[in-house]
Give the backbone structure.
Amino acid sequence: MSDFASRHVGPRGQDRELMLGSVKVRDLDALVARAMPNVISTPPSAKKLPSAATEAEVAAELTEIAANNTIRTSMIGQGFYDTETPAVIRRCVLENPSWYTAYTPYQPEISQGRLEALLNFQTMVSELTAMDIAGASLLDESTAAAEAIALAARTTKRQRIAVDEDLFAQTRAVIETRCHGLDIEIVPVRVDSALDLEGCAGLLVQYPGATGRMMTAAQYRGLADSIHRAGGLFIMVADLLACSIVTPPGELGADIAAGTAQRFGVPMGGGGPHAGYIACQEKLKRNLPGRIVGVSRDSQGNPAYRLALQTREQHIRREKATSNICTAQSLLAIMASMYAVYHGPTGLRSIAERVHGQARALACNLSSLGVRIRYTRFFDTITASVPNKAEVIRAALLEENITVFLVDSDTLRISTDECTKDETRVSVVRAFSRVIEGTNELVDMDQFSLGEEIRRSSDFLPQATFHRYHSETEMMRYMHRLAEKDYALDRGMIPLGSCTMKLNAAVEVSAISYSGFARIHPFAPESDRLGYRRLTQDLEAWLAEITGYDSVSLQPNAGSQGEFAGLLAIRRYHDSKGEKGRRICLIPASAHGTNAASAVMAGFRVVVVKTAKDGSIDLSDLTQKIEDFSGQIGAIMLTYPSTHGTFEPQVVEVTDLVHAAGGQVYIDGANLNALVGYARPGAFGGDVSHLNLHKTFAIPHGGGGPGVGPVAAKSHLAPFLPGFPGGSRHDWPGSGAVSSAPYGSASILPISWAYIRLLGLEGLREATATAVLAANYVAARLEPSIPVLYRGPGGFVGHECILDVRPLKEKYGVTVDDVAKRLIDYGFHAPTMSFPVAGTLMVEPTESESLEELDRFCDAMESIAEEASRVGSEWPADDNPLQGAPHTAHSLLVGGWDHPYSQEVAAYPDALIARKKGRDPEYVHRLIESKYWVPVGRIDAPWGDRNLQCSCPPPEAFED
């Protein structure tokens, strides 16, 4: 193994030999050869992938690549702004594995820290926008605006949307893409002229506009009245920072507000990742897309956080889901929330006033030169009219190391931000002066006033959290206290099937803080983004070779968006051939829930294919469905290996059947961790796939995002991959834009680049084979006590396995929830629950976990099965360690102990089983010493849904 591979891959030496012996194979290659059908084995070429490098070499290369990006003072704006990330937040959140290696908070008892931080985010958004309820983040501003339109269409049952022309170009592009898939007609309007809103689901405006223009409060309220009279909803894509000093959307009649929290301490990063937001009035809350954090209570009656209204989640609702978004941008939402906590309302107002003041001063400076400023009411962006001189002035500004937004040969847009200084304005004026003969007229600054009528008069963020932590000492302690409540990879194994919680190596992650990646605007001149060009070209080429496809787009900023982009490419391909009737998408019953939701978003009708008894696709049902919908088959969506954890031997037969029927084959790349280096989807029948870089290629999950979901396709679908306005590697429009920036979440691409560069082909193969070995070792160890539901060829599983704990319920009344919560007492995050089979646990150990950690998990599962056998005989059904789990320190120490099992059984079951098995005393002591103490007892989720509370309680809640 390479130097890095020996650190990335957990089992080594004798440990590996022991594991191989337990599954009765001689080496890793022999294991893969027996588990994986030979027909799909088509390894990539070592000549087209980089050789393995050391950590020092990769760090040096990334430093050099970042240096090839040119950092300038960005005044481009248009949705992306320079911002000061407080060092305490960068150090304690962005660069802290306790935050970035955590998973989505599906197990709320061990996610209280990040859930509180996300509740702060929701509170921040709802307070700044003056809306009743906000979600826990979306993917970016453009997709948030598109989700707002879909929400309006669902609510009103209408398929037309009025969109103001003063909108960021990238937002308009994403809206067009989404509306095409949903067959929603876009009606372009100018809100400063007469409006015909008949039959429209809503009216969408940017606030402030892309030009910087702001109208009066009365005019915005008039727009709200107009669309309401027409039976539609008023949507405002609002700048959160501006909302601290201008009248918020909720006070202007808006029904929905959407946008981005990027200005709140999150670097531009070449376009992302950034936390989008969406908020709405009370009447719309149950149709809100994405996630909502809510307050409930635990088994002791104490307040506790959890995800609210979970029936909206895609794995449950599938094609009936309100959105295909599975995870969003939790890590960035947490950063933004901490920025608001650190600055508080007074600090936010101060920053906003500085930004606005610099814009006003610049407008005065340029007006004194004779430059016409098109709109006199603005927040941070001025539109300068300079007939026939815009390009010359932009070049002069580049000489001053400043970039601005070129609209056309006559017009420039210039935006101020938190980092704009007086010296910046002097440089801008100097550049203009070299091109324009100034008049040096005195200009009254009052002419560029917002006007009292549009200024915010209401207070915001009165909650105590936004007033307590303004010193760095208190802020550091607050973030540490929240992180301590959570279970992340820095504590132990997270064996979530299908989610691939592998090592996120420090050398891979560290590059995202480099200023050469962080401070680059996505619309900066191409010559300023040479480092990103090298990075993206390398990554596209490597991923194409690894997957066997011809072309790759890195634009999708989540796996869900990669799915959508791939399916939309299929739809556009069929349309280009005059086959618009191919709108059936076949989806196996075991598929990821986002598959069905994405298919509907792309305009397909979902037809489910049954599962055979061995967990594979039922070929007879597939054949029948193809016959039933002859001439209508557009695609099939496969996950390979299947979500049941096996390499289905008939996969090529399945792809051949669909191709013969005229359909395309979409292979979901969620389980690519079992294929890399050994098999390529594009070589065994796939036409298009998305890849989860936040799974197989080591980008951290960040508590529920960020993610990257590149889409890879064969040459005939390549012209239909995502495009971007203004041009990118893929010609516009392709299938349209799917995110706010040409390369989506560009700043985290160095992580996957580094992962491939560090491992090389041999290291990638080592990682894949070890992941398969780890899953088979767990299956072999646990089979005597907990059956494995499905196995593939030769009796082997893939890189994950499904443990069937349903017999525990049948025999002893112990549910899958009981098992999951009891695992917390043993110091584990539970595996994936009840997916894809209700009442089971799907386990994916990954290649990064050591044999000791795998054995610790197996010990825990065996012990829980043994504990279950004692329920009903030794312990009552309503009072036993499983039903009472998880156990808090408070429940053990306060108020007396009156349970039929001991406090030691409740608190230290892992140490007890280790001692019983004769493990080394030092190991037993370590288990006791490193005990994870869950902060809350079992949470009552239904109570929280019945009593929905999705923001921090106001001060008056504590008056008593």
